[in-house]
Write a sequence for this structure.
């Protein structure tokens, strides 16, 4: 970075300084000409003095610009270096879910933008890459195998039949991805209008699929047909039911262990909302469960997972925020890259697999994860 800044400085100097010196030389030549009158010579001397002053000002300005540029680059690099893995406990309960000496491991790197991790009992993970437009199978050793090429794949889940379900943003649909790399659209409309860009999907306690539909990944140039960003239920019969349109930008979602509460975060407002689930499956009594404030570029509430004791793990500023079921922030798992989503995995489901920007990480935990499709 410093070398680049110096090159820019030298290039600017090479372009501008000769011009200023050339003007100075012309002024000097005018003074040396015997045919010029005293008035012309005086004007030339004044012009030469102005050129010299301008030259000094330019040198000072260029030098200060160079110093500021180096400072900005140094600050940026320092910020990047300062981000790393750290366990930041706020409450003693935080250490009941993760060991003080837990180590973060990199499973695989070199992705474009990772999302939608999903552990397969066969011993690998499905990982969406939104930039490369593929879903991969990733082994514990980091080996990648392409499953399907798909425009902006996002959140994934298994349903009760162990089918891989994906939020296909470009298709604006909820789809089934088959083991041979094909797909089938399960739903792409609500009341005759196209979805925005389905983002995350889970299986509910009733076996239905629940998903969020923000405009986050709506393809540029395509029309938003539904005038809100909703949360929906997709039944086995293909019926799509709107559950709420209260949120500005719904994203990650999860049910409580008993299925009586429904969590969904609002990325735009940086909040996690919770609803009570009524007997008919409708969502009532919506309220703020927690807030994850942060600055621009710090990350927002995104993926949500729950453990077997009822704690929530929500991606947010710096990493993964751990909340108890009452809405108390227990601590944060700070990560070297901004996470977007997470999943429980390994044979005992005590490992958090985390998709964070260009990488896939894993972290052993002291608790077992809640995996909806295995529970009912």
């Amino acid at each position: 970075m410093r070398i680049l800044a110096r090159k820019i400085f030298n290039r600017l100097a090479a372009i501008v300084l000769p011009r200023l010196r050339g003007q100075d030389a012309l002024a000097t030549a005018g003074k040396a000409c015997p045919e010029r009158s005293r008035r012309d010579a005086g004007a030339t001397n004044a012009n030469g003095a102005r050129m010299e002053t301008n030259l000094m000002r330019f040198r000072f300005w260029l030098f200060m610009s160079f110093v500021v540029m180096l400072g900005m680059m140094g600050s940026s690099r320092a910020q990047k270096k300062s981000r790393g893995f750290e366990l930041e406990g706020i409450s003693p309960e935080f250490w009941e879910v993760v060991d003080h000496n837990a180590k973060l491991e990199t499973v695989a790197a070199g992705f474009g933008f990772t999302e939608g991790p999903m552990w397969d009992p066969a011993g690998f993970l499905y990982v969406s890459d939104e930039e490369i437009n593929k879903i991969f199978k990733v082994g514990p050793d980091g080996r990648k195998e392409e499953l399907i090429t798909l425009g902006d794949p996002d959140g994934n889940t298994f349903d009760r039949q162990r089918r891989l379900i994906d939020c296909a943003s470009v298709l604006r649909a909820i789809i089934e991805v088959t083991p041979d790399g094909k797909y089938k659209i399960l739903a792409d409309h609500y009341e005759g209008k196209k979805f925005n860009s389905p983002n995350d999907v889970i299986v509910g306690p009733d076996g239905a699929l629940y998903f969020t539909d923000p405009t986050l990944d709506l393809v540029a140039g395509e029309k938003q047909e539904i005038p809100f960003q909703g949360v929906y239920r997709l039944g086995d019969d293909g019926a799509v039911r709107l559950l709420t349109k209260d949120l500005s930008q719904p994203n990650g979602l999860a049910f409580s262990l008993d299925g009586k509460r429904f969590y969904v975060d609002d990325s735009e407002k940086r909040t996690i909302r919770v609803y009570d689930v009524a007997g008919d499956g409708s969502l009532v009594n919506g309220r703020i469960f927690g807030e994850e404030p942060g600055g621009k570029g710090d990350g927002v509430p995104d993926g949500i997972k729950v453990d077997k004791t009822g704690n929530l793990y929500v991606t947010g500023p710096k990493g993964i925020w751990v909340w108890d079921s009452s809405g108390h922030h227990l601590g944060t798992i700070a990560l070297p890259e901004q996470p977007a989503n997470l999943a429980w995995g390994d044979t005992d489901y005590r490992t958090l697999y985390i998709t964070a920007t260009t990488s896939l990480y894993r972290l052993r935990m002291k608790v077992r994860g809640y995996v909806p499709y295995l529970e009912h």
